[in-house]
GntR family transcriptional regulator
Amino acid sequence: MSTPAAEETLARDRPLLERSGTAERVAEILRQRITEGVFPPGSRLSEPSISAALGVSRNTLRESFQLLAHERLAVHELNRGVFVRELTAQDISDLYVMRRVTECGALRCASELSTVDLSALAAAVTKGRAAADEGDWQAVGTASIAFHQAVGDLADSERVSTTMRQVLAETRLFFVLADNTRAFFEPFLVRHERILRDLERGRFGPAETALEKYLRDAERQLLAAYERRES
């Protein structure tokens, strides 16, 4: 069920809809909040609460729910409502196949460009390290999502960037398996820094190799966490 904190967050998003209150824009906001962990897997997306918080009609909200369901971020349960989707082990494996193809491919595309802007990656690394210093591991997870979105954006392709946003929103759904712990996130934060250093030196090949290993290790850890939770 939507929490008061989630509703307050959405109320702050209302100005984003002033010029365009379309279902697509509502879905974009909800997708972003799912990515940030505001709505964790299994939580109910309360139609009355969200409609009031964003100041949109029920019809607009229902259309946005349909878009999220199409993206496999939400599910409609008969006589119960709409819920943020909970992923399976097969979902985890399939998402990481997609991530390896997309993110490693983005680095190969970037290697062919005359100039590459790494500022978004650097900003994500800085935010992640600052959050880690404060012991805020959920914020470290959010910074990690931003880092990987920035990797996808290096391809300089609107379609790749859009695909990454959807895939990373799904990825955040199973961050709950990691319980936002230091043991899970800190090693990957160090890897972000190493990948960034390689890219800053124009070492795209080593960066891609490191990224692929990173993603395989993350998949393995999340599958193990999923199995522990299911057993």
Summary: The chain has a mean pLDDT of 90. The CA atoms of residues 11 and 53 lie 5 Å apart.
